[in-house]
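Format notes (please read before filing issues)

Several people have asked whether sequences and structure tokens are stored in separate files. They are not. Every record keeps both together, in the order shown below: the sequence lines, then the token lines. Line labels are part of the format and must not be stripped during preprocessing.
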Amino acid sequence: MRQPPHTSADQGALSSDSGVGLYAAFLVAGRRFAVPAADVAEVLRDGRVNTVPRAPESLAGLLNLRGRIVPVINLQTRLGLTAPADHEGPATVHLVLQATEEWCSLLVDEILDVVEIPDSDFEQVVAQQPTDATDATRAVHAGEDGLLYLLDVKQVLRPTSRSRPAPSPPPAP
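Then the structure lines:
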């Protein structure tokens, strides 16, 4: 069953009056994802991320973006994905979004392109069991290059209950 993604009232300007949306596509762990292009503030090829003690594992840390403190979400961890064997190390590209009232940075492997996709070409994601990846995915598009998952940024930013373990106390002398 074909079903268009949520309307622009739900999250950013997804589509024009013609029923075609512009999406910023990117790679995470060998899979293609997208967010509405209107939500993208900028792309940084590298940036110093400051870790946050006892934060959820998907929160890579905080980025100081010209005085604005921006949370950095490691999408591979947040979505529960495993990188393919030929993957070349940790993601270093920041896709900085202003998709909600807050800014955020999604840590991705590679920025692909801005693509135009008709709303009618999206299909609803159907899963037997909800997972971190499916709860953050609004829709999927089957294109020539394979599947492209449309992320729900509000769900990606939703706090997770899992946190990093507390540091172990030093051994007694």
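For reference, the curators noted about this record: Residues 47 and 65 are 9 Å apart (CA to CA). The radius of gyration is 17 Å.
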